[in-house]
Amino acid sequence: MEIPILQDIVIILGLSILIILLFQKIKVPSILGFLLAGIIAGPHAFNLISSSHEVELLSEIGIIFLLFVIGIELSIKELISMKNTVLIGGGLQVGGTILFTTIVAYFFGLPLNSAVFLGFLFSLSSTAIVLKLIQERGEITAPHGRVALGILIFQDIIVVPMMLLTPILAGDGGDLLTTLLILILKIVGVGVVIYLLARYIVPRIFSMVVKTKSKELFILTTVVFCFAIAWLTSSVGLSLALGAFFAGLIISESEYSHQATVNVLPFREIFISFFFISVGSLLNLEFFINNILMILLLVIGVVFLKMLVVGATVLLLKYPPRTVLLSLFSLFQVGEFSLLLSGVGLDNNIIPNSVYQYFLAISIITMGLTPFLIAAAPKITYSILKARVPSSVRHRLESLNKLKTTEETDEPKKLDDHLIIIGYGINGENIAKAARNAEIPYVILDTDPVTFKKAKNNNEPIIFGDATNSLILKHLHVQEARVIVIAISDPGATKKIISNVRLYSKTAFIIVRTRYVREIEENIKLGADEVIPEEFETSIEIFNRVLKKYLVPYNEIMDFTASIRSSDYEMLTSVKGRPHKPSLQHLHIPNREIVTLSVQQNNRDIVGKSIQTSGIGKNFRVTVLAIKRDTQYITEILPDTKIKQGDLLYIFGNPLNINRLNEALSY
């Protein structure tokens, strides 16, 4: 049995692969590759797509997944904090664009109803492109990212009244008041349903699903929930995308949001490509070529007008100049809902076909420009802000900078120089306790629902997620972590985690707990810095107790234990440690460590004396690299540098010698 859409999928995605491979070599964004593939495969070029309607449906699914992921990354609390941006900012941007577009279009001879309708079309920006690019750049919670999101949410909502007003502009009034009242009642009903789902139903469902430990069931539940809420909002006249956004917001309140994001992302990447392809397929190449100069002039005009309105809107919201500039470089394009609305206007004869073709060309060009301008926005913004401006203007801008809204100061604190504990078993729990007592910032990752609940009850900073997924590691800011402890009982998963960590960080110190000695060498080859086998540690502990029964002095037992561990268990196995990267072998110094020692006791031979007279180098054979005294760091260590009680010494040397010095300073 032949499936027509399958042929279309193979053709357009295969064509996209070839184009994007070429574009990647010349460093052109992949979005443009999909647009070009759509243009080539569209009905106005080679007409390779026979099931255009089905392709449009696939593109709609892509937008659903995109907005779903955006919703997960926010929270209901954050959305409420953005109410001024959504209502005031969105209202000013949409209203201002409609007003100025109407004036300009009417001046150039279009009827008033057509001019107002063009204002509707140009007032909307591309939710799919802007949010995708901002999310990929990690700027969705940045001030300009939140501004863009707030305005786009308002645009998605205002599409519904625009749809209702379109027949009126065409002269077919109908009972508008009744329609609006019914719509308001439906929206209130949807709001109540969403609240009940978020508060009582969804957390319990996901809790039951997680307890089954079935990855397939978790993915299925996430996708079904996303589509169910999207279908619910669509049934009351709102957009599917807005419903998906609400679904994401609901899941964002649960403890399993990060893993849900990871599960949905592959679907989003596949389906969103169909959106860009379907947009490209709409372009009439013959019309575009014949009217290229006029189209380019109109593009410049539309971009300038939209930037002017967006900039004024964000400025009125009292954001600083940098946020104003970054925002206007994000929202200058024409959006996908404008394409949907334009079809309704064409059907109602509000705009002629020639105007519609101009609009399509402008839309596709502005969408194509978006990746370039968003990427270049920080540099352009910096250049503008550094440029000379009149002192009165600069003073006004600086005064606005002091009136930042809470939206700009509520960003969550990023993890930095922290400890990541993967696995909250006995070892993970003990490491977390030690880190808390030592005031070391840490975060825990686990997928077991029982241990996850236990950690939550202990008020631990734990995240539900699979560490074998690189996106989860990225969310934990693995690239900024100092130490990563992998304390799980799955050898295969452990190896994959080490490999994924090394994709993001070459400097993080990875400590791995394994069960058997045979796992040491492979883990070290993959990138682990230290591998601690349970069977060796058990052997050491048993032999320590044996030595105690033979009345061996305690300090000799400790020295024996330290010598075994410092030599990577070389006494117990032929496996030797090695650096995780062969090219760094010259940095690996066997049997040497860098540690910090606290000067606790007033040792007469060391405290109060200089480095030279204390005999640290001669008697203990270690090197003092730096000293922390109160809040100051002494990094230039000279022979006459004195050691004081309370200092923190950064020491380099043999572990046994370091232990001897520590005893001298501590007891």
Topology, element by element:
Blueprint (H helix, E strand, L loop, with lengths): L3 H22 L4 H12 L10 H22 L2 H6 L1 H25 L4 H12 L3 H10 L6 H27 L6 H36 L3 H21 L4 H13 L4 H24 L4 H6 L1 H25 L4 H8 L7 H12 L5 H34 L4 H11 L17 E4 L3 H12 L4 E5 L2 H9 L4 E3 L5 H6 L7 E4 L4 H14 L4 E6 L5 H7 L3 E4 H16 L4 H13 L26 E6 L12 H4 L1 H5 L1 E8 L2 E3 L13 E6 L1 H12 L1
Parallel strand pairs: 1-2, 1-4, 2-3, 4-5, 5-6
Antiparallel strand pairs: 7-10, 8-9, 8-10
Helix pairs in contact: 1-2, 2-12, 3-7, 3-11, 3-12, 5-6, 5-8, 5-14, 6-8, 6-16, 7-8, 7-17, 8-15, 8-16, 9-10, 9-11, 10-11, 14-15, 14-17, 15-17, 16-17
In a few lines, what is going on in this structure?
This protein folds into 3 domains: 4-377, Na+/H+ antiporter like fold (Up-down Bundle), CATH 1.20.1530; 413-537, Rossmann fold (3-Layer(aba) Sandwich); 593-666, Alpha-Beta Plaits (2-Layer Sandwich), CATH 3.30.70.1450. Helices cover 64% and strands 7% of the residues.
Number of helices: 28
Total beta strands: 10
**Physical arrangement of strands within the biggest beta sheet:** 3-2-1-4-5-6
Measured as a percent range, the helix fraction is: 55-70%
Range of strand content: 5-15%
Text of the CATH class of the largest domain:
Mainly Alpha
In angstroms, what is the radius of gyration?
A: 31 Å
Quick check: average pLDDT?
81
For the biggest sheet, the summary is: 6 strands, parallel
> What characteristic shape results from the CA principal axes?
elongated
Provide the low-confidence segments as ranges: 402-413, 574-588
N-to-C CA distance: 84 Å
Supply the CATH architecture of the largest domain.
Answer: Up-down Bundle
Keywords: Ion transport, Membrane, Potassium, Potassium transport, Transmembrane, Transmembrane helix, Transport
GO molecular function, one term: antiporter activity
Pfam families: Na_H_Exchanger (PF00999), TrkA_C (PF02080), TrkA_N (PF02254)
GO biological process, one term: proton transmembrane transport
